[in-house]
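Researcher: Here's my situation. A collaborator sent me these components and asked whether they could plausibly form a single complex. I don't have experimental data yet, so a predicted model of the whole assembly would be a useful starting point for our discussion.
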Amino acid sequence: MQTNLADFIRDTPQGREAEAILRKCVHCGFCTATCPTYQLLGDELDGPRGRIYLMKQVLEGEAATEKTRLHLDRCLTCRACETTCPSGVQYGRLLDIGRAVVAKQVPRAGLDKLRRDTLASVLPRPALFNPLLGLGRIARNLLPKVLDDVVPETPSRARPWPLGGHARRMLLLDGCVQPALSPATNAAAARVLDRLGISLVRAPGAGCCGAVAFHLDAQDKALDAMRHNIDIWWPHVEQGAEALLFTASGCGVMISDYGHLLAHDPAYAERAKRIAALACDLGMIIEKEKSQLKQILISNPPRGKFVFHPPCSLQHGLKLKGRVETLLGELGFELAPVADSHLCCGSAGTYSILQPEISVQLQRNKIAALTASAPAQILTANIGCQTHLQSATRLPVRHWIEAVDDLLSEVH
Amino acid sequence: MPVDLERQRAVCAALRAFMPARNVLFEREDVTPYECDGLSAYRQPPMVVALPENESQVCEILETCHAMRVPVVARGAGTGLSGGALPLGNGVLLSLAKLKNILAIDAPARTARVQPGVRNLAISEAAAPHGLYYAPDPSSQIACSIGGNVAENSGGVHCLKYGLTVHNILKLRVATIEGEIVELGGGGLDAAGYDLMALLTGSEGLLGVVTEITVKLLPRPECAQVVLAAFDDVGAAGEAVANVIAAGIIPAGMEMMDQPATLAVEPFVNAGYPTDAAGILLCESDGTREEVADEIARIEKIMQDSGAHLVRVSRDEAERLKFWAGRKAAFPAVGRLSPDYYCMDGTIPRRRLAEVLRGIAAMEKNYGLRCANVFHAGDGNLHPLILYDANDPGQLQRAELFGAEILKLCIDVGGTITGEHGVGVEKIDSMCVQFGAAELEALHALKRAFDEHELLNPGKAVPTLHRCAEFGRMHVHSGAEKFPELPRF
């Protein structure tokens, strides 16, 4: 596509990157087919191709207004468009650049700003988030319907964390909201890996991966969070941690981007690259060790019907489409097919709070697709999707590793 | 051309009388993303974009525009490659994208009734639980809308055996420029009177706006397999195509890609294309297991006898789909080789393929631009993709001249300027090469019978005689024949 970037950005790193991305787009429109918001709203401006055009206008010097900001806000950042794009347009990166420019030109005000600032401050801080979540749960019967849906139910309890002590060690990203919302997940990951001779190590002091702030117009704040994490993790890396493991693909996709996002910070660039290279989704670790796991499961194979909801961060962000499904199939899980599994469930980080109307429609469609085969459980791989889907169904929605842990717990 | 603000205000006010304000766009910021379809070389922001949510709003928009004498350009998914949905600066762009419901699937009758904004592939997905599918499959089928398919009479890789859009629809509901609904076609294969449904199909939005389509569905074949054959010489590949047809085989699809095209798609699809070959052929057989086994064996032998240095048969359904996925992503994948491409759509007699490809190779040198070739080999429909960089002044113009010369060559060897993408704005001058004054006048008379004031997609598909005279004069300068004595077939 023809480009003519404005002086204010042309010769900056962001400008150069944006231009390279824009020039790859040939305006074919394939992306609109798998864009959840375009499929719901049917307006070019609410699909990737139209958003690319809106951003291009701003980058070429047209003044942005609230409308451009709104259409960019409506993007879930699910990146299904990137999976679909034959031309290799890195839409997600362009959106990061475009959103930052637009946020500067059209600053947020009032309730919108307050909501975003609050989310960016509270969610990444367990010391604030956990007590508030507790209050929310106590008060849920008193809350208006809209908030009641947002406050998650009390989660299933975690099984005891293993003692560890294996020679093989991997570093675990604890995550910010996950330990409170779903404490069983990381414990299950640690227990399963323990059976496979791997110890999961936690790094106290590490915080949110940065994704929450990054997607709430606070990219500088996010970069600081990343630097902080690198400082905390680095000694573990030097001590030979094999991988930096994550159980929430939403966080994983952010960490995998550390190298790119800190490339222009000489103090952190090298370490950020190394951290990003070490980042690994739990599924990919288990995939490598699956023969051992299969052996153990022979005596206690999975029973009943499951469905798997692949998070967008897993299939489109980390480009691991189909991998966890295949793995679970090999472990003996009967996974029923799910229509439109490439589409977002509407959770998308803080999207469910900021864009409730679209989010609820996507949630409804997703639950209908997931429950069409009457499964016993819904499995997924990201805390955001998990709590969002759980708020709309009585079926248990869990991280898939918990289902594996269930089986292992019964085999001694 | 600056927007006539007064007129814009009046049109918006009239539309808002029956549509929510959010579905009537007019500010520059909002209408610019609508300035082009899949052919981004031609751009024009519309005066107003209207986003109706149902058929009655479509009718009201047309009625309003007719009364106010505002031209209307209908748009589906905006994936067209000939600029058919290029807006007008003084017109309304009528987007059908919000009309995206599949209204009914009648499995015993093997039909589906759908709104125009439904994606082509979504019809097959919805029909799949009944063991049925919709056969025409343009490469953009993941995104393109069925209404656009009707407007362009789209084909696809399987149209060699199963026909174009016109052969796979039964009935249309069409809104006229006056805003009245007419039903064309019917439940059966033939209807009394003129076949106006066929006339509307492929009329590129010049005669009416399709608001509902009844499509035919076919039972999914029990089995399908693809032969992939690689050749050191594209001419030999062309011969192989002719040999398959001469053997009495009608493949479900027969496609060719040259080396630049396979090099572009392989990194995206990992289809396993041999990227060292000068050209590859994909040839599909479908039917019962026995039929397919027999036909595949015959196709393999013909490929080998025609000089293929590698012949592979898809081992399973996943590999068959991979083979096709590469072909279907070929156009946009070219975005990996070059920032822009200009796609042509000429059709030639199959036996002249090698000669035309040699001609195109010579033009590449003359114009200093590369060209990747993708080819619906079975029906002789060429898609040369001329690679250019719009940021480099002069390259688009060179690409256009290159394209026009390819189309001229297509006509010279006994072919035509469009196979399936439509004329739009892109090939409108080449229409002057293909048709004479009397023929063009007849086409204009036909349009006026539907649209007296020429408000529906004016300036597309059929050139005015004046335009052709200008074009002919241009050609005198460049040494070509003069209108109206231009050769045609």
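Model: Some features of this prediction you could bring to your collaborator: The interface with chain B takes residues 1-4, 23-34, 38-39, 41-45, 49-50, 53-54, 57, 62, 64-65, 67-68, 84-89, 339 of chain A (CB under 8 Å). The radius of gyration of chain A is 21 Å.
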